[in-house]
Amino acid sequence: MTIEVDYQFPPGVDAERQAKVIAVGQTAGTWDERFAHREARLKSHLAEVVRVETQETGSLATIHFPEANVEGDIASLLVAIFGKYSMAGAAKVMAVRLGEDYGSRPKLGITGIRERLGVFDRPLVMSIFKPALGLTAADHGTIFAQVAHAGLDIIKDDEIMGNLPAAPTLERLAACRKVIDEVKEKTGRTVLYAVNVTGRADRLIENARELVRNGANALLLNVLAYGFSVLETLARDRAIDVPIFAHPAFAGAMCASPDTGLAYSVVLGTLMAHAGADAVLYPAHYGSLPFDPLQEAKIRDSLRQRNVFPVPSAGIRAEIVPQILTDYGSDVILNAGTGIMDSPGGAAAGVRAFFNALECA
Amino acid sequence: MTIEVDYQFPPGVDAERQAKVIAVGQTAGTWDERFAHREARLKSHLAEVVRVETQETGSLATIHFPEANVEGDIASLLVAIFGKYSMAGAAKVMAVRLGEDYGSRPKLGITGIRERLGVFDRPLVMSIFKPALGLTAADHGTIFAQVAHAGLDIIKDDEIMGNLPAAPTLERLAACRKVIDEVKEKTGRTVLYAVNVTGRADRLIENARELVRNGANALLLNVLAYGFSVLETLARDRAIDVPIFAHPAFAGAMCASPDTGLAYSVVLGTLMAHAGADAVLYPAHYGSLPFDPLQEAKIRDSLRQRNVFPVPSAGIRAEIVPQILTDYGSDVILNAGTGIMDSPGGAAAGVRAFFNALECA
Fold first, then answer.
1. B124 lies in the same domain as B208
2. I need a surface site. Which of A19, A219, A227, A348 has the fewest CB within 10 A?
3. Which residues in chain A are contacts of B139 at CB distance < 8 A?
């Protein structure tokens, strides 16, 4: 298998030349007669410029990299396709096409999360603890009880809520686990709480295992701040037999520029889907962040192709449920933070508004 | 201690308003009367807009974040200051000012690397194995012998050379360790070989320990592809008692845009220096990549302030040694890949050319 990458160059850049610079500079580099006896071996690592097309917005070059140059993970892929070259001038990675077996797969994904919840025929409804910082662990339990008993499927920590002395992660889990057990006993329903797992890589991995041992039934990871290498570790760890929700925090730092970095659809779609996430959050174009509907559609499709749950987020309200259903159909998680938590009638009423909207639609 | 961050907005953006959005949206978020009894606690997490200045290139807003919002590491810092907001539109993080005790410190840094080498009074000379991919482990040993006996201080793997079947990392180390021991025996000199450590986070950490157990006397890490959380783990691991060289691969994805992402000086200067790197590579403005001399100077100063060795790289040649000495003085590592390896007289002559240039200057 080769790895196929589309690079976009702004008007005025000699794309033919830059494509060759990438194909050689990001692989074997140059060599001279001293290495003539190794020429076959050197050439086996070279990338190949497949085509260069001039478009209205600039040029698009497609390059094939040998899979032998990388280690089957996301980090070595990023270094190979855009390591040094990311610093070479204006160029943006618009698409990465990987073999089906490249990377990791979700342990649970859409089908596994549906099985855990016992919900197969409708979108899932998710919310976020708000306010983001300032609540105690007991507050988390109180809020969770309101929304869980009202029918919510999933709740997650706010991404900026780490393991802080004011509300330690294990204490938040204990307060919420109690609610999970109550709901299960009373209704038979499972409610997931995606606990934000943080810390230096070694501790984060140990923290994740400890959370699962203590009853966490889902995890949240800020993949782009902590590293794809951390997500891949959690995804491959058998002790972590719960779904991992990938958060897009920091994605704009590498995706928001029109001329540099990588497309959102690459980072939040292709790479997340090949790194083992079970569900991926990303901005929805209906929402409170500016987002391109075409990028959103690409993310949705890349994720679903590998059984990963798409979670359009940020500014999701009950009023736009019909539009989401048109765009997404049933295999989607409706993630509403303030859309549920700041509901005028209270958080429980916010949850019921989403289920009413789903029934009407 | 507070965390002070400068955000730059392009002309036309209401910077006063955006600064308030950051100060609230990236911290507590909003709350209503239900949380009135927790108001003091919520307010303790709010960030504060210190000033907003309108400049020629747009506006600059300075915001103070409570250190209580984060966990003393880089990943939680990135989520707190630029997690969701990175996706909110055009804004660039131009500076981050952290308390002296924030994060990690290098185990060795400038003074420790100099002690290991026994070289105190001149810049260090470093090279990179070239061609990047396609050499065998034995080739590495052969090339290393040439440059090490010619007086080189440090060599590193190319950043795209991972743990590939064609040249496994442990075999490269074995071939080069032999040379390190020969040079030591013959001349008393220590030569460092920074071995590229790769893999998923759990394996990478174990690989790093294994490399050190097997005689690695330096490591190379592609920090931005693998994650700051991984660098911080290695930096804090007592078993890894060798210098860690941080490579800037992928930095352009988050730094190359004028309007989004973070300044190179933040990522390759401030954050690397507070994440425990012993030496940090970055493009030099003399070199083959486009780079702003002001950013370079800021990186140099941020690193040295925490005893971290600056390693200006990419296109460094013996001819520009006098200029580097003017800009850097003695505490610098001169890192020449092709500048040494593609020297017309061979790699050993390339090393000698650098030492000649240092003596003349």
1. yes
2. A348
3. 38
Are residues A69 and A126 located together in one domain of the fold?
A: no
Q: Are residues A126 and A275 in the same domain?
A: yes
Which B residues, 192 through 221, put their C-beta within 8 Å of a C-beta on chain A? Answer: 198-205
Q: Which of A158, A227, A248 comes nearest B201 by C-beta? A: A227
- B79 closest CB neighbour out of A134, A135, A159: A159
CATH number at residue B66: 3.30.70.150
Shared-domain flag, residues B282 and B189? yes
* Nearest CA-CA distance, residue B177 and chain A, Å: 23
Residue A186 appears among annotated catalytic residues: no
Cα–Cα distance, A8 to A6 (Å, whole number): 7
Burial B172-199 (b: 16+ CB within 10 A, else e): bbbbbbebbeebeeeeebbbbbbbbbbb
* Residue B138 near chain A (CB below 8 Å): no
Q: How far apart are CA A328 and CA A313, in angstroms?
A: 13
Question: What does the pLDDT look like over B77-117, one tens digit per residue?
Answer: 999 999 999 999 999 999 999 999 999 999 999 999 999 99
Put simply, the answer to whether A83 touches B160 (Cβ < 8 Å) is yes
A113 shares its domain with A85: no
CATH classification of the domain holding B154: 3.20.20.110
For the stretch A251-295, pLDDT in tens is 999 999 999 999 999 999 999 999 999 999 999 998 778 899 999
Q: How far is CA B92 from CA A194, B82, B89, B342, in A?
A: 30, 9, 10, 38
Q: Is A1 on the interface with B (CB under 8 A)?
A: no
* Best CA proximity match to B284, nearest among B336, B246, B241: B336
Q: Is the ipTM of this complex over 0.90?
A: yes
